[in-house]
Every structure is written in C-alpha cells, then in structure tokens.
Design a protein that fits this description.
Layout lengths: L1 E11 L8 E11 L2 E5 L3 E6 L3 E8 L3 E7 L6 H27 L6 H14 L1
Antiparallel strand pairs: 1-5, 2-3, 2-6, 4-5
Helix pairs in contact: 1-2
Length: 122
C-alpha cells in the first residue's frame, strides 16, 4: 500500500559506517517467488553515525544498507586475470591435443581427462 504522505521511521545501525560508506534506506520488495532490496519509495532524510531517519511512502520491511562507492579494479589485477586466463587456455588446448594424438595411451581414464579438458576450455 502506497500513501500520498510520507512517514518517518528511525532505524538503528548495527555497525558504525566506515569511511566511504553511505547508509541507504531500503525496503524489501517481493516479485513473484523472489524478492530484493529497493530504495524506491524510501529515502534517508537524516540521522547520525548510529541512527538513520527514513521518509517512506509505504509499509514494508525496512533496513539500512551501508553502500560503499563502486570499487574500481586495479590495472595489476586486470593484467593478472588476462595473463592467467590466456596461459590456462593455452595449456588446456595443449592437453586436448596431446590426449587426441597419443592413441597408444588411450583408456577410459584418458577419455575422461579429455572430456574434462574440453569442458574447462569451453
């Protein structure tokens, strides 16, 4: 039920916000069999480090989320990710070729390793 007027609700924080964290007033919204936290219809209008005052237009289950600023990936992490993925794909490709070309070693175990390598490569 949505109201035309807002009402204030005061919520206590379980932890003190760290630097960069911004408390947000949210409510639980159910969609079908699933649900999620949403900030629509509820905004933070005041408070301090221990409490938040939320102005809301509907009744629901309310909470305070400590939203931090989006974390940007570092250049080093990106390089390690791409290099590691490239090396892994090359090694898996070599393993697949080895399993296919070495028919003298063919067994159920080798066939299973081949299928696993193909799945991991994909």
């Amino acid at each position: 039920v949505t109201f035309k007027v807002t009402f204030n609700i005061t919520l206590q924080h379980h932890t003190v916000p760290r630097a960069g964290e911004k408390p947000r007033c949210v409510s639980w919204q159910t969609v079908g069999a699933e649900g999620h936290w949403t900030s629509s219809g509820c905004t933070r209008v005041g408070g301090d480090t221990l409490h938040s005052i939320c102005a809301c237009t509907h009744f629901s289950t309310f909470a305070i989320l400590m939203a931090i600023h989006p974390v940007t990936e570092s250049f080093a992490l990106t390089v390690v990710t791409y290099v590691g993925m490239s090396v892994s794909l090359v090694c898996l490709f070599l393993a697949i070729i080895t399993f296919l070309l070495c028919r003298s070693l063919w067994s159920v175990s080798v066939a299973l390793h081949l299928q696993l390598s193909i799945c991991l490569f994909a």
